[in-house]
Specification:
Two copies of one chain form a homodimer. Chain A has about 475 residues and is α+β, with helices and mostly antiparallel strands. In chain A, about 35% of the residues lie in helices and about 20% in strands. The first copy, chain A, is elongated.
């Protein structure tokens, strides 16, 4: 534990992580054995032939968590069961921080099998020239290895102190690789009992092999489908071309006007409530030297097309957008048909950032359009909806505690990253439980998740568990310090 | 014959229309009998059950034209035969004006049959409160009645003088109501022998019951299909939205920029060679009091969307346009898919006016687009082509002769109208034979062509034939006077 972390945690810290980290170090071999057992279960959720293996994995998780004094139930769903495990002091008079940990016990299919160097469910400990020791198996990184970083951290706490520094609920699902069809109904039914102060989702990666990351910003979404109606029927462009209004032309003009020359969106009120990242955050992101050129180059692009004065990373992580996702109107078959169509449609979607409300953004779109509609053209909308962005207050105690703990372990300030897209589990937690999530994980880009020879660095596994030991301590200290 | 026409025709006129008009008047009853015979043949080209009736109609036309000394052949095609009839002085040393008259002997199906007041092929002479005597039958106006105005005019000339004032070729097709599939191959094969100085197409209408019209301007056409390619694949708008260029947005911007605020097209060089109609022509058109509001109102529009400072009639008849006939890109199925598409496409077509060349206009479109394409977006084109506008020089002798002849007959200056669309037969004559066409016809808007109880005013039939007598004389005089 660094001096700095001690200082951040302040007085009143009951538990001493160094002891717990020592326990973890002594239990290294047992932890690896347990992970190997877990990896041996071919819990492929997409293939009905492996349904029993999924049940076996759920049972294995339940037993493992029971073994470290969690109260566990395996809850049936229409698909694979949910493992729900709880540990709390039970002292209701002294409320403590409560975290919900999320992971999944199912894995991707291993195909193509013959591309594996060893059977995918027989975990191999291999020496890799870049990463040193690695564990190779389906699910090693996604997500069994990551789940076990947290479970082993809890085990070390229990073995050392007989308690956890915070109340913990663990939710492990078995359908993440199949689109999580049972998750929302389950949260709907059991939401109240699952709600915690914060969700910790361990299914993401580090910034690089030496640098931890916290995903703290996820853009929200709003969407709307617009249909413009002009003439009462499709017109012959020879007979009517000139005086007749063409809805495709009007739609083109509406689309063209959505951005000004600097790439800023012109919808009234669109940026109300939107803050720029702090100068410190911007500086930190710039220091990442994110390879925007490489990022765009992989999909055949070279020039950032977003707002001027924002880097590619900022355009992705903290700036809202509007996109036309689809457009159709008039004759689109082969050859020529000289028609002025009665209608033209476009599907719009927005990526939102904290401070924006989907409803207001859609209202703004309507206002933008009605302000610009020429005579004889009417607009109708359908398929509208959305969800707000997730943006952690990076100065909040829980966030600072998590970041400080990671820094203590890795000797580097964690990179606070955003994610341009909403992530279903995070959205579900927000929508169903009203709970924000921090995404902390220890995967690396070259872990080959979903591919043959998936691996997890032994250092990810061990330092991941050590990170959770520290994070749990730091989160516990937040309330104690408050 | 009015003093004015005598004066316009000038010295050297060999034939005196008054005699011919007298012949026509005396032969009134016979003409009506012949039209009734022609109308009795149910020559429905779209219905194979009436194939023999179509052959019968072709034979009837051939016999009728042979009866007035035309040299006639009935030429087979893959569909219905073409009737080709020729009359000329045969004096090769003294070249005379040569006109090609076009009409069609096929008719629309009569459905719904029970909406007819009498059987559709049993022509009825009825007194109509508005129009006086009318002839009611399928094909009375479209196009058998109109064809016979010309044939009866030729008969009167032959009966009176034993000759026609100009060399005449008559081309009657039997597939006009089925899209004329055999016409282009026929012109391709026999073009040279059909080429005349001018084509006279009798398949259009008067301005109103008292005012004749000549359609002298037909807009041309150019077309191009544009595909914009951006990212190398469809992108997730969460992961890439912001810095990634969206081809639909670029397409919208291109479409929006095609017109300036006054509705003028911004493509470089687009208006090169385009002349405004003469002040006299504009004045004449304004005097028509064309009901632009009613024209647009019928298709659910109210405000002319074309160039400022041009009336609806001018926008339609003498101003070029660009239209987007179709557009497609991204996801267009039900619901939402947050994609940034790799591609977006639009089909463009231009209506051209005299002075514009399709190739140059398409080149201009390419230049416009390449000037505006942002980084990372490429444009490809396909399906390009077109045909120039038809615009008669209204001061040319043949035009003035025709207009003068119509004025003599009707006591009113004929309205010189344009047509916003190209007309296939006119385009075929231009493309295949290099010959321009004037459209002169005597139909009225309430003739109910293609509908039950189709009619042709007896006055259209009789004054139509008188008009052709005068037009043939006047055209004959143009060369004599030259």
């Amino acid at each position: 534990m660094t001096v700095r972390e001690k200082s951040a945690a302040g007085p009143g810290v009951e538990n001493c992580p160094e002891d717990v980290l020592d326990t973890l170090a002594r239990g290294r071999a047992g932890a690896l054995t347990r992970l190997t057992e877990f990896l041996a279960i071919p819990s492929i959720s997409t293939d009905p032939a492996y349904h029993d293996a999924c049940l076996e994995a759920a049972t294995w998780c339940a037993e493992t968590l029971r073994g470290i004094d969690f109260e566990v139930s395996v809850e049936p769903t229409d698909g694979k069961p949910m493992v729900v495990a709880r540990w709390s002091t039970g002292k209701g008079d002294e409320p403590r921080p409560h975290v919900l940990f999320y992971g999944h016990y199912d894995v991707q299919p291993p195909d193509p099998l013959d591309a594996w160097n060893a059977p995918p469910y027989d975990a191999q400990n291999v020496h890799d020239p870049t990463h040193g020791k690695i564990i190779v198996a389906r699910g090693a990184s996604d997500d069994k290895g990551q789940v076990m970083t947290f479970v082993e951290a809890c085990r070390a706490w229990m073995d050392t102190t007989g308690a956890l520094p915070v109340d913990v609920t663990v939710l492990l699902e078995g359908e993440e690789e199949s689109g999580s069809p049972s998750l929302e109904p389950f949260l709907e039914a059991h939401g109240k009992s699952l709600k915690a102060d914060i969700a910790l989702v361990c299914d993401t990666g580090q910034w690089d092999a030496d640098t931890p990351a916290i995903t703290a910003f996820l853009r929200g979404l709003a969407f709307s489908e617009l249909t413009l109606s002009g003439p009462s029927r499709d017109l012959h462009s020879g007979i009517y071309g000139g005086p007749a209004q063409n809805p495709i032309r009007v739609l083109g003009e509406l689309i063209a006007g959505l951005h000004d020359e600097s790439g800023r969106i012109t919808i009234p009120g669109f940026y109300e409530g939107v803050s720029d990242p702090s100068p410190e955050q911007r500086q930190a992101w710039r220091a990442l030297n994110f390879d925007g050129e490489g990022f765009l180059g992989e999909v055949g692009l070279s020039a950032p097309a977003g707002e001027e004065d924002y880097s590619v990373v900022e355009q992705l992580w903290c700036r809202p957008t509007i996109e036309v996702n689809g457009i159709v109107g008039g004759y689109t078959g082969p050859g020529t048909k000289t028609v002025i169509p009665a209608e033209a449609s476009a599907k719009f979607s927005f990526r939102l950032v904290p401070g924006q409300e989907p409803d207001k953004v859609i209202e703004g779109l309507h206002a933008y359009i009605s302000d610009r509609l020429p005579a004889d053209v009417t607009a109708t909308y359908r398929g509208e909806g959305g969800s707000p962005a997730v943006g952690f207050d990076t100065s909040a105690p829980a966030f600072r505690a998590t970041a400080g703990a990671l820094e203590s372990e890795w000797g580097k300030v964690p990179v606070i990253v955003g994610c341009g897209a909403s992530i279903p589990i995070v959205e579900a937690f927000r929508t169903r439980l009203g709970m924000d999530a921090l995404l902390v994980g220890f995967a690396l880009e070259d872990d080959a998740i979903h591919s043959p020879n998936e691996k997890y660095n032994l250092s990810s596994f061990e330092k991941g568990a050590r990170s959770w030991v520290r994070i749990l301590a730091a989160l516990g200290a937040t309330r104690a310090a408050a």
